[in-house]
Amino acid sequence: MFSVTCVAPVNIALIKYSTHILGGKRNEDLILPINDSVSMTLRTDELCAETTITASESFYSNKMWLNGEEVPFEENTRILRCLNEVHRLAICAGSQKIPLSWKIHVKSFNNFPTAAGLASSAAGYACLVYSLACLYGIPVNDQLTTVARQGSGSACRSLYGGFVQWHRGNLDSGCDSVAKQVVSSKFWPNMHLIILVVNDQRKNTGSTLGMQRSVQTSQLIQHRADKVVPERVNQLKTAIHKHDFDTFAKITMKDSNQFHAIAMDTYPPCVYMNETSHSIVSFVHDFNELMGSSLIAYTFDAGPNACLYVLEENIPKLIYAINKAFPNDEESADYLRGIPLSNLDIQSKTKDNIFREKMELLKIQQKNTLKYIIHTKVGEGPRLLRANAR
Ligand code: DP6
Questions:
Q1: Rounded distance, CA 271 to CA 193, Å?
Q2: Residue 130: pLDDT over 80
Q3: Is 142 exposed, middle or buried (0-12, 13-18, 19+ CB in 10 A)?
Q4: Which of 20, 30, 61, 123 sits most deeply, having the most CB atoms within 10 A of its CB?
Q5: What gap in Å lies between CA 95 and CA 87, rounded to an integer?
Q6: What pLDDT does residue 334 have?
Q7: Which pTM was predicted?
Q8: pLDDT at 28
Q9: 225 vs 17, 49, 214, 241, CA distance in Å?
Q10: How far apart are CA 65 and CA 128, in angstroms?
């Protein structure tokens, strides 16, 4: 019996990949996108998937448990595809670590609530594929990212740390649709992320409804894929290489806006952001204007929660401003989760009269529109925690 336990990170796109819901895939089964995307990988301390895979000669069938509940394995084409592809890579690499005929049991957990609406599939599939690679003794390389991609598109970017580009590729086989690291997490270590988890009373019908609309796609999406994204990817990579936060922020916010404009241009529209999301957008623009430059950048995925990119040195200011504009009854550590923030840091801002006066100009929202806040930062790719042979 062999077993491995691994963790894999979440990644948040700066330049978005559009799923088939918005008509963004050129091949549905292989998950081939119509444009490149760029993301930042988050450290695993706050958000990650942890997966244990055991392979044994005595197992009768493949099985999988997700957060403690058994989920169908043999019926899940995405999981089967990942397993078969890893087997294929093991054969190509001549790896004979364990017999491919042995059945496997997969147990996977997310260390964050699925209800938070954060992209759990990217971390989950990256962890599955990485753990399989460890089990069968194959390296993390371009080809392994093509396997993770076939589990969930954005999962291919979670196989690397730092900033990562998923190249759309041109081949019908998809073997050139790979993720590559742009720079490691050490290149811009003070890049942090504040996630505002919003209180959302509405049931999220967006993606379910969206599926039914997959054939009807936006007329804007092709222009985005052909013209806008290629330019933005180059500009963003240059901004990252130069540590140019101002340009980084503008591109990120514009791309989030365009992604959601295309969701709205899908007919009938896919609505992912809610009223609170829009008030966060206004808050960020107001804050940046008051500060005289872009100190924060928002981005929204297929849900209402906001991800705010911010440099470490500007976090006290941002948290002060959030507490001001989005008042909340909750004051416990449960409200501000993740990397701890010294109260002294925030209090020092209350003593800065010029800053405080500026913050008085922020529009104050209704109480308790935010559920909680997660403070995290750029991080590394998946890693092996344990390996056992019995
Ligand atoms: C909005 O990777 O979850 O987060 O490939 O169908 O599994 P599938 O979709 P998924 O889509 C995520 C899309 C996004 C933008 C992004 O991460 O690029």
A1: 24
A2: yes
A3: middle
A4: 123
A5: 10
A6: 86
A7: 0.95
A8: 86
A9: 10, 31, 17, 23
A10: 12
**What angle do the packed helices 77-93 and 142-149 form, to 10 degrees?**
160
Q: What helix, strand, coil percent values describe the chain, rounded to 5?
A: 40, 25, 35
Question: How far is it, in rounded angstroms, from Cα 222 to Cα 37?
Answer: 15
Extract the tokens encoding 377.
Answer: 């930062």
- Report which ligand 1 atom has the smallest distance to the Cα of 259: 1
Angle between helices 229-241 and 245-265 (to 10 degrees): 160
Token digits for 157?
Answer: 């970017």
User: Considering only CA atoms, which residue is closest to atom 14 of ligand 1?
Assistant: 301
* pLDDT, tens digit, 9 for 90 and up, residues 58-70: 999 999 999 999 9
Cα–Cα distance for residue pair 208/205, rounded to 1 Å = 5
Pocket test for ligand 1, best of 14, 15, 17, 168 (most atoms within 8 A of CB): 17
| Residue 63: Cβ within 10 Å count | 17
Pair 6, 131: CB distance under 8 Å: yes
- Residue ranges covered by each domain of the chain: 2-186+379-389, 191-377
Q: Predicted confidence band at 96 (pLDDT cuts at 50, 70, 90)?
A: confident
Whether 126 lines ligand 1, by a CB cut-off of 6 Å, is: no
Fold that domain 2-186+379-389 belongs to in CATH: Ribosomal Protein S5; domain 2 (3.30.230)
Q: What spacing in Å lies between the alpha carbon of 28 and ligand 1's midpoint?
A: 13
Cis peptide before 268 (omega within 30 of 0): yes
The CATH-assigned architecture of domain 191-377 is 2-Layer Sandwich (3.30)
The Cα–Cα gap between 336 and 49 comes to 21
Contact 307, 193 (CB under 8 A): yes
**Two tokens, residue 182:** 């742009």
Q: Which two tokens stand for residue 301?
A: 């995925």
At 344, the pLDDT band (50, 70, 90 cuts) reads low
Q: How far apart are CA 192 and CA 42, in angstroms?
A: 9
CB atoms within 10 A of CB 230: 13
115 — pLDDT class (breaks 50, 70, 90): low
Among 32, 35, 114, 154, which is best to mutate for testing ligand 1, by the most ligand atoms less than 8 A from CB?
A: 154
Closest CA to 166 of 197, 145, 196, 184: 145
